[in-house]
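#struct-pred

JT: dropping the chains for the assembly here, can someone run the whole complex?
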Amino acid sequence: MKLLKEKVMTEGIVLSDQVLKVDSFLNHQMDPVLMREVGAEFARLYAGEKITKVLTIESSGIAPAIMTALELDVPMIFARKHKSLTLRDDILVEKVYSFTKRETNEITVSKKFLNKDDRVLIIDDFLANGEAAFGLARVVEQAGASVVGIGIVIEKSFQPGARLLEEAGYRVDSLVRIASLENGTVTFV
Amino acid sequence: MKLLKEKVMTEGIVLSDQVLKVDSFLNHQMDPVLMREVGAEFARLYAGEKITKVLTIESSGIAPAIMTALELDVPMIFARKHKSLTLRDDILVEKVYSFTKRETNEITVSKKFLNKDDRVLIIDDFLANGEAAFGLARVVEQAGASVVGIGIVIEKSFQPGARLLEEAGYRVDSLVRIASLENGTVTFV
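RK: done, full complex below.
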């Protein structure tokens, strides 16, 4: 996606071989026109797939997900992150490990918003190790619903998430794919 | 706002005299068409006010804020919530007490995204005691920028937030205002 690649090149800050900072347009300050275009692109990729729900996780996934849901004309759900929960029978819960924060969180979705007839498009801002995406996919499957695909704004292709998700049988669509951040430079796939 | 009132009437669940659950369209599952209309309404209310940034707080504020920012054609920033932070000199930090969760969080915005020339519209999903809105306003003022107004999706007018903000000199625009949740019934102002 050309507009997104340009943003990454002009505004992305390479903090290390592993970390790309995009807080000027994606995960702190957000560019609403870019988010609309991201949503339009995911909707185009999944047109004809009879998506019934868009699912993401708070917080940075919400803007691209609501724009995608608007284009597809379906509800959006954002999973909540918690440190840990007492068991409740009206929610779907999965554990997700964050490599960045080195902690395990529980993510939750209310049972009443996902059912076995749902065809779900998962959206997230970044794909690195795939922990969040796998957690969201398990939430969908716990509800008996189908994961139609996983739409990612920025994939760090040098980390294993995309490969692991595809090996597990999921369709993954990343709008930009980064091959390397070595030498302080963004190299696309 | 008629569409929003209808949603509150048909899908809002009165949990107590104090608590209205709107997780089917505003703060867990979200209705993207409603969010677009909410954004359009805030943009209409602040047309001509030369807004340069929309500011909200994660997570439920993000969807209405990104739609408002899209309509106004300005960047959106979401403040992050943290338990507590070691001091860093590149961020604006304010303490916010949550009556719901009975805890104090710190909210942060990177200094580079707000400056003294900014004219900021603050957006949030709910207004009850006003703690979050006051915290966001203090962040804006710490940066030397101006709070032009505070746009709220649902105001619980029987709690003091709106009055306190207006007494402090802020313009507050709430799209629906709830006078009471007594007897399990939503009564609008």
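JT: nice. Chain A is about 30% helix and 35% strand. The domain at 2-83+90-188 of chain A is CATH 3.40.50.2020 (Rossmann fold).
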